[in-house]
Specification:
The protein is of the alpha+beta class and 403 residues long. The chain is 47% helix and 15% strand. It is built from 13 helices and ten strands. The strands form three sheets. It has a four-stranded mixed sheet. It starts with 10 loop residues before the first helix and ends in an 8-residue tail after the last helix.
């Protein structure tokens, strides 16, 4: 009898994973204790980032998710899952390797759906690290959030060979520094085919960055911004996919992006327990090390188990994507579980480290602030649970099919 299930990484993927781990430990983690390494948004400063990116490129660790023909490393989703987890053992890690949101998701979707001309103009500079990017979807009330098909208010009206954009968007990650933007707007009232995706450049007239919205946690580069469109003209050649394919585009874009979030969050969850483990093994209370206390062991063991559950859900979804499946329910399950796990792991670590964990002597408080967004970004957990329920009603016991 031949069994096909195999949890071993290929030698090539494991080599990438180990080299990334070594790079992060040697060059990235030490920067976390250097106040000069941070920018105003509590992320890595641009000059420090530039130097590290050049070093990562020289070591063949640049843009793992892109094809080798485009300057990346050509890893599949399973390989990305293993390596992204290692990258985000540091709070600065993913962006160093050009694998951070939103650029990561934008590169992946453009590689899938853009024309060759569009890839040359809009994708390749992101891959090369010459520009940053943003995806422009979410709107203020009563506009679109988790229901873009039914609620999007920003319009794109055709005028000859151009599309004229009017509307408001907000919480657009990275917009403060992005040069290449992907915009989703309404082109008709059709419920399923009413949205279309477009590309535009920062220097194009007819739009403005209204403000950089203050948030609880540390920010990605470029913050989370509010934008206003008042007559932006986009040539039809900068339209992505067919007219009316905007919802399809968002499903392609967000499905993979949600899973790459999970990959990275698992790295932060693991790092939280690493910090806590080191502390409880050296700190004494009531005559023994904290690590010897049963209550501490329960907390650590449960968090470790939850991380492993999240890893298995994430890896299964990655494997299904590699098989050509959309893996919608698998991605939703991973997204909900890993978002909860990240918060639980860092909360546990802070509890075990006490005042030290709550202080800025470790990166636990940074991770804690960052973790709260995980249950919101790319679809709130409640929306994903609703999707899972609908799948259960439709599939019955086949919901748990091995295929």
């Amino acid at each position: 009898m031949v069994y096909s299930m195999d949890f071993r990484l290929s030698p090539e993927i494991d080599d990438y994973r180990q080299r990334i781990r070594a790079f992060v430990d040697a060059h990235v983690v030490p920067l976390e204790s250097d106040p000069e390494a941070y920018d105003e948004g509590d992320n890595i400063s641009p000059e420090v980032l530039r130097q590290l990116r050049e070093q990562a490129r020289c070591e063949g660790l640049w843009c793992l998710q892109m094809p080798k023909s485009r300057g990346g490393q050509g890893l599949n989703m399973v390989g990305m899952a293993a390596c992204y987890e290692e990258m985000n053992r540091s709070i600065f890690g993913p962006v160093v390797f050009n694998s951070a949101a939103p650029d990561d998701g934008n590169m992946l979707v453009l590689e899938k759906v853009a024309t060759e001309a569009q890839k040359s103009r809009w994708l390749q500079p992101i891959v090369d690290g010459k520009v940053r990017s943003a995806i422009v979807m979410t709107e203020p009330h009563p506009g679109s959030g988790s229901d873009p098909a039914g609620m999007m208010l920003t319009t794109a009206k055709r005028r000859g060979d151009n599309w004229i954009i009017h509307g408001d968007k907000w919480f657009i990650t990275g917009a403060g520094v992005a040069e290449h933007f992907i915009l989703v707007a309404r082109t008709s009232d059709d419920q399923r085919k009413g949205l279309t995706a477009f590309l535009f450049h920062r220097d194009d007239p007819g739009w403005e960055l209204v403000r950089r919205v203050p948030i609880l946690g540390p920010e990605e580069h470029g913050g989370h911004c509010e934008l206003r469109f008042d007559g932006l003209e986009i040539p039809d050649e900068n339209r992505l996919m067919d007219i009316g394919d905007g919802l399809k585009f968002t499903q392609i874009r967000l499905g993979t992006a949600r899973l790459t979030h999970c990959m990275r969050w698992l790295g932060l969850a693991k790092r939280s327990l690493e910090i806590a483990s080191a502390y409880v093994q050296e700190r004494e209370a009531f005559g023994s090390k904290l690590a010897e206390h049963e209550s501490v062991q329960w907390l650590m063991g449960e968090a470790a188990m939850d991380i492993q559950v999240g890893r298995l859900l994430t890896m299964h979804a990655a494997w299904k994507l590699d098989q050509g499946d959309f893996a919608r329910k698998e991605v939703s399950m991973a997204k909900v579980a890993v978002a909860d796990t990240l918060h639980k792991a860092v909360d546990t670590a802070i509890q075990l480290c006490g005042a030290r964990g709550y202080s800025r002597d470790t990166v636990l408080e940074w991770i804690y602030r960052y973790a709260r967004q995980a249950r919101l970004v790319d679809g709130a957990s409640e929306v994903h649970k609703m999707v899972l329920s609908r799948n259960l009603m439709k599939l019955g016991t086949d919901f748990w099919s091995w295929d």
